Amino acid sequence: MIASRRILHLSFSDTYDGAGRAAYRLHTGLQAHGYDSHMLVQHRHLHDPSVHAAPRGRLRRYLPTYLDHLPLLVYPQRQIFAGWSVGWRMNRLPRLVAAYNPDIIHLHWVGNGYLPIRALAAFGRPLVWTLHDMGPFTGGCHYDAGCGRYAQGCGACPQLGSCHPHDLSAWSVQQKRAAWADLPLTLVAPSQWMAACARCSPILAQHRCEVIPNGLDLHRFHPQPKAAARAALGLPLDRDLLLFGANNSLADPRKGAAQLEAALHQAGADGHLRHSSAVIFGAVAPATFAGLPTHSMGYLNDEVRLAQLYAAADLFIAPSVQDNFPNMVLEALACGTPVVAFAVGGLPDMIQHQQSGYLAQPGNPRNLANGIAWVLAHREHLTPTARTFDLAATIHQHSKLYQNLSDVTVHASPSL
After folding, report:
1. Are the C-beta atoms of 86 and 167 separated by less than 8 Å?
2. C-alpha dihedral (335, 337, 338, 344), degrees to nearest 10
3. What is the spatial distance between Cα 196 and Cα 194, in angstroms, rounded to a whole number?
4. Angle at the Cα of 10 (from 6 to 16), degrees rounded to 5?
5. N or C end of the chain: smaller count of CB under 10 Å?
6. Using an 8 Å Cβ cutoff, are 86 and 172 in contact?
7. Do residues 87 and 115 make contact, with C-beta atoms less than 8 angstroms apart?
């Protein structure tokens, strides 16, 4: 039976970031459906015996990231939009993977030096790679800030502050193309946007790409009585609560905190937020944000508490200026909370405009403010839901994908 196959998931973390959480949800879902599934991670946060830490000891966990970023020092003018990974330094990962003897290796977010470029050819197994961001097919950036240069092989990278056509980004593209051209690699894109980007890439265009959205356990994330959720979290009952959150939500420019602040100032000036408060998680928030009283929820890893927070809010705002398939949007919709977001990346796959939320013009804070006001005025008539993203459907799609992979053993590169 296919479910007896051993699947090994490689992920930088199990739950620290959105990609890690999506990978862990898939892993546990596969286990529940009979798969012999394991995770091998750089940073382990859970006490799950099926999640294994690749390096042991604090130094060995953090040193690969430091070493991976060393080539960036050549570019003192760099302005990294959303992180950068080089993958230049070979490590022990192929030997660690071989010890688990997997039938299929499923890659997730594997940046920051966890997965070297040349390691993929050493695995000798069929590979599936979920594209949680753009990193696998760019010259190193995890999101390209709209430059689009990955489609031409990068070089003269704006994020590196480089004008040279043969810079680090171009080198990285050349390395990936050479190392991955003949691999038994199948891609999974959570959004239509990510799939379209991958198909334009000279690195990955020749590989099969399937669109499979991230799944969610709808028994864990579901609508709850708003008053009870607010009482449990100590939030006021008499205010409109505008929720915003992501990993490093206030400091990461890609998450759009600056655009959100401008939109809230605009909505406030238009008189739409007289009874509103902001609620922020994924950061230590100030007492006021954009002139609104603000409740700082800090960093939340407890999914029970996180589901209560979504249910307590009147709307969730996702002002990311570039994004793939953010878990927070999916979680908010599953809890019955409408979402206001820019119509970028995979957000149109998730939000039905003026049905489950509002899709604002990309990069337009005024239109985002209009969306916030519109949802507050029409919230009783909206139908936010995540039924089409049930984890069971995601497991079924992955099961079909695994079943279609070749049973022929792939031989590791003799040069590694």
Report:
1. no
2. -60
3. 5
4. 125
5. N
6. yes
7. yes
Reported for 93-99, long-range contacts at CB under 8 A and 24+ positions apart, including other chains, are 93/10, 93/54, 93/119, 94/119, 94/122, 94/123, 94/412, 94/416, 96/40, 96/54, 97/8, 97/10, 97/40, 97/123, 98/123, 98/124
- 92-101's contacts with Cβ under 8 Å and 24+ in sequence apart are 92/54, 93/10, 93/54, 93/119, 94/119, 94/122, 94/123, 94/412, 94/416, 96/40, 96/54, 97/8, 97/10, 97/40, 97/123, 98/123, 98/124, 100/6, 100/8, 100/38, 100/40, 101/6
Q: Which residues of the chain fall below pLDDT 50?
A: 1, 408, 414-416
Q: Model confidence over 278-293: pLDDT tens digits?
A: 999 999 999 999 999 9
pLDDT value for 20: 94
> What is the C-alpha to C-alpha distance for residues 391 and 316, in angstroms, rounded to an integer?
22
**Degrees, nearest 5: CA angle 252-255-261:** 100
Distance CA 300, CA 371 (A): 26
Q: What is the CA radius of gyration of the chain?
A: 21
Task: Give 82-105 as a 3 state SS string.
Answer: CCECCCCCCCCHHHHHHHHCCCEE
> CA-based angle 161:79:61, to the nearest 5?
120
Question: Which residues, 6+ apart, have CB-to-CB distance to 299 below 8 Å?
Answer: 281, 282, 283
Lookup: tokens for 149: 């240069």
- Look-up: residue for tokens 């080198």? 171
**What residue has token string 């759009």?**
256
Helix, strand, or coil (residue 166): coil
* Residue closest to 2 by CA, chosen among 39, 35, 38: 35
- For residue 408, the model assigns a pLDDT of 46
359: which strand partners?
Answer: 341
3-state secondary structure of 273: coil
CA quadruple 153, 159, 164, 170: dihedral, nearest 10: -30
Which residues pair with residue 298 across a beta bridge? 281, 283
373 contacts 272 by C-beta, under 8 angstroms: yes
- pTM for this prediction: 0.94
What is the model's pLDDT at position 410? Answer: 58
